[in-house]
Amino acid sequence: MAKYLKNDDLGQWLSELGADYKVYAPVQEGDSIAFRPFSKGKALRIDRHATVGPKEILFPACEELLRFSYQKDEENPGRENIQVQVEENATPTLIFGSRPCDARGFDVFDGAFTQCSVKDSYYIARREQAAVVSIACTRTENTCFCNWVGGAPDGTNGSDVLLTPIQEGFVAESITEKGEALLAGSNLLAEATPEQEKEAKALRAAAHESLPEAPDFECMPEQLYGLFDNMDFWEKQSAKCISCGACTYLCPTCHCFNITDERQGNEGERLRTWDNCMSRQFTQEASGHNPRSEKAYRLKNRVGHKFCYFPELHKGHIACVGCGRCIKSCPVSLDIRQVVTSAKECRLPAEDNDNE
Amino acid sequence: MSKVKNPYLPEMATVQEIIQETHNIKTFRVTLNNEERMKAFSFKPGQVGQLSVFGVGESTFVINSSPTRMDYLQFSVMQAGEVTTRLHTLQPGDQIGVRAPLGNWFPYEDMKGKDVVIVGGGIGMAPLRTLLLYMLDNRDDYGKITVIYGARSPQDLTYSYEFEEWRSAPNMNLVLTVDAEAPGWEHKVGLIPNILLEENPSAENTVAITCGPPIMIKFTLQALKKLGFEDENIYTTLEKRMKCGVGLCGRCNIGTSYVCIDGPVYSFAQLRKLPNEL
User: Fold this and answer.
1) CATH of B115-237, one of 3.40.50.1100, 3.40.50.80, 3.40.50.10260, 3.30.70.260
2) What gap in Å lies between CA A55 and CA A35, rounded to an integer?
3) How close is the nearest chain B Cα to the Cα of A349, in Å?
4) Confidence of residue A136 (pLDDT cuts 50, 70, 90)
């Protein structure tokens, strides 16, 4: 069932896949590891978590929603007509080297953008043409907590293929039909031997072992609703936050966006860009009113959305994948694990007893 | 290729007429350029739309014409930010984009056979006008209609050219109020919640609908409670900063409820169940 790919053949396999897909893979870029278009001979960095996940491949940090142009009306020169154009440019794309947490992020995106009353046509066009080949984590980092939020170092949600790195290569398992086709299409992949499969299994089990025990988050919605008006709690939790938004940009599940117009002369474009719920402007109304004017309100909404609102709307699915990037890259070391465990452990005031 | 409809693509529309309502509010009457679409266009009282000025952006406004009068779609716009400032420079004949209808609507079906109290403040009268005209055009379906409409000064009242039409409808009580005495003003003077208490409408078999600035809504709600209205029978329509208008961009939520698709119309019974974040 499982296949085996030698380390030395990885570049060749990705080149083969490049015939049908635009392939993205993690590479070193300055101080960071990020997903970039793969070309033969390019050194991959798959030995550790990418600094920036693959989110932007399916949900670009900035994308054009439409183009417009103003033209003078030929019959009435005092009037301007407007042409609006939409370019559909999704192409088959393969994401190689995502981690199970990253791939689970796409699961959350699928919920947010496709399992809802109005669907996001731009995301869907990309998602339908995307294949995801993830690498199971055989080593975890001290910021990893995927097991707290329903994931695992070898979780398969959101991936089409899961690779487990072993001594000389990878054990490759297909998760979906799309993944099966990816593995069937190359002579570089052989049947994995029972020893190879055993080695992969042992490494994966060790990764599970290495993670700290997972708290039970079932009570989170109740706790977070209970804490909603406890601003002392939220002010304390958000005290050191500088509202920079690094957490939101690096988060595999954060999907909030802004829409803005750019105009140059008689033409321009309407752009969609990543937005940041930790910024004051996010909910600033033109009247001057702002329902989340302080960072305490914003952190409350961010944590609330991930651990309470999104799960309520999407069958209990927590909108956090435990990748730890928001912890690692936070300039003031705000740790979401600490926020949610504090919220979980907070004793709520007893309900008013109606019987009295 | 994906077959999903592009939810961000506006329809082109032409500004037909512009009414200067107050010093900072203009009303725009627009028609969709595609005649078939305009003919087929349908919406419910309380639903909103996004108006686009290409190159500046989009903002959300309630459709404040009634679905019973479909010669045009009407939007009243208070100048406040970038998009509204640019909208205020438009002339008849200018082209804009429209994405509509969006959001939910007033419970105009459930209100049939009941008395209705409408309490509006300032630009908050816009969504209430839609409902009022709808009820006036289906007059037999509704009981007594009381409209309490207030603004800072007589010059800040919108739709003043229609007051006669409203007032002359059968079984209708229009009460106008301003914050302070003004030369020539022959109606009430006083804050809306106080005038509401003074009018003392019966809460029995009555639905109350209010829209206006948050502080007015707060005190109007208290007044309605004093008059015996239950939370289930009090409705309001909310404003939030919106971008997508279709529940995707993530900023207009109150807990699990997205004002752009689950609202903007809420009963106070519904709001009470949501986190307190208006």
Assistant:
1) 3.40.50.80
2) 9
3) 17
4) very high
